[in-house]
Design a protein that fits this description.
By secondary structure, this protein is of the alpha/beta class. It contains 15 helices and 46 strands.
Amino acid sequence: MKKYRYIILKLSLIIFFLLTTSISSGSSIIVGFDSNSRYNISNLNIDGITFLNQFEKNEVKNISISINYKDIHPYKMGLNGFYLNIEGFTPRSIPGEPIVPMKTYIVDLPLNSHITNVGFTSGHYIYLKKTLKPAIAAKPLFWNSSYYTRFTFEVRYNPTEWYPGKLLSYDIGYDIEKTRVYIRVYPIQYTSNQVLILTDGIISIGYKIGDDGSRYSIKTSSFSNLIITPPSFYQAAKQLKEFHGNQGIITEVVNITWIYKNYDEADDPPFPGYATDDYIRSILTKYNYSLAKKIISYLKDNSAHPNLKYITLFGTAEFIPPSYYYAFYSAVPTDLFYASPDYDFLLNYKIGRIPVNNLSTAYHVVDKIIHWNPSSDLFRNITVAGGKPFDTPYDIGEMIVIDSINQGFFNGIKPNKCFRTEDMFNKSSIIKSLEGGTGVIYHIGHGSGDAWYLEGDPLYADEVLQLPSNNDLPIVVSIACLNGAFDTKVDETLNLKISFGESILFSKAGGIAYIGGSRGNAGIPIFSIDKGRLKILGERYMAAMLTNFFEAYSDNNLSVLGDLTDRAMQRYIENHDFDDFLDLYTLFCFTLLGDPVLKIPSRPIEEENSISTIDLYNSEGYIDTEGIQIRYLGSSSNGEIPVYPILDSISYNISSNIEELDIKLVDSFAFEKPTLFKTHINSIQNKPLIYVNDSSIYSIRVINPDGKESWLFLAISLLVDDDYNNDTPGIHINRWSSIQEAVDLASDDIIYLKPGIYHEHIIINSSIMLFGSDLSKTIIDGDGKDIALRII
């Protein structure tokens, strides 16, 4: 039998012996609701419930919500754990705690409103007839291994109390026009023996109209775009101002020396970091915190810039300090408080940083912006790149990218896929897009601060700097850790001369902007596997932020780069309640290195095609993926996959509204050359046989011409059934009646036991994965002579 190129079982002898009960997942589960017994929420002792008398003498605004329990779909995500998905809600996922649906309702009130109370004033709920164990959110995975080792993981919720223990939470934000209330609703509550589901309710927002709306004195309309620069780069900044002025964008240049002289320091941000952490202050001796707080004061002074929308920070952190350094195991630079100088989550301005470090580089980047040649044709060329990080069989890098494609964010475009499964997740393939002729590069892979690792074939910042000149350049979007750093001279613990993101801007090619994170970035997809079929429910952390960016990218009403990054952050704020400190960390990390008023041409708009799907027939059973994800860091099971024997053809059918498709078979355990075949098919007339020689976990991918993909996972195994005999087709080839006979022939193979009583004791001396079909019907009794299983 085959030896996997990708080694799963690293110890000298490891066996996965799982005789698991087959539990279906996804829409195939029937969840029973006691819909005839509706209870009033006034009976509950859960936060977020209030009473109407608490709103007396207040202005009140009401929101009505209704949830149809028939629209709730369970997805298996954890060993016998389930996530109850509700259409229109997003998964709230905090490591070690149950994954629950959440939805944010946004209420805008007059500017001078003071919120007095927010809560459910009426509502009803029902109970699930059968208790489902909740899926537990996995340990966060960072796109740089040094960050991952800093986290401990444990299940940390109390199952004897309601979780999350609140029906709603809320945040308040202010800008020059309004007061905004973010109301986050949690309709499902868990205890160890009950599941509660909110079916309807009225949320009341109590507020009072104040008399301080005049604190913003409105002047005659002025500039909408601001460049903040040190004196040494002033002439280059003026050149950029003139360019934008010629585009019709009224721009002003403000010198940091003027700000420092004319404004007092703002208060410290109410977050742990430079203001509170002695260690951070000790390593950041070059951080000009006083100047940062004075810039915040200036930006908070709306009377000085009443029409301001966009801000360019023209210089690295050495010249224009970050608005703050947040404390997260180390120092995290953020420009967020320049976007929100009142320290709330309603962003006032759209921020970008051009991290130049000398005048010649400043002139070079400005010249690059002036001569950038964006066009709709350029933005028809998009490169997406992803691989196989975190030792998981699920091609997480490709999966995150595919989610954006499948959601229609690139409709009208067929992305160039630099995927590992296309043998293109490498330097020679990706560097072509950095040389020019591409509108966007979307990269999901590891980084080191000055490189994209590309799984063994790194591309370094120094190589990007050597690219030949080109004006047809991409916006580069990447999850890679540390590559968006702009403070390499301030935080010397980074040990970086230049970040990869900076090299994108400083190169004669590379890109016109870099979007990513200034420090380590976490992020994986939230997904389930329903009888082998992949269902992506969302992403976490920076992966979610980048998905938000491409959702904004698909909106042709947004034509300026800063609008896209602003929409991504606002969507992230809406979809997270910040009970998870990594959500706040991600918001602080997110960085646009580039000019926020770059004009983006219209993107193609074409009719959306549905995702083609594949159905398999006549499986031998199902195995739980808990035994497969043995090295998927911090994760738990995501569902079940069908089982087929080696050397047998697999019957299938493709459902599609498109005739011409591609089909691809990928070995999930193979690190090199994982794709067994990829072929073009006619979904109606030509369906090639799927016939697999080697035991492994595979995915079959059906690919539309526009790049959309559906994935279906399956296990190819050695089959054992005590009912087999010498007349059984395939006996001793892919089927055995004796477990021991199959084990003796196996090496790094999957063995699947069908229901039966096996009167034998088993000796195992090699690495295998052994699965049983049913906990109650698959029995090894040891033949009454010895222990049932011995590992030697």
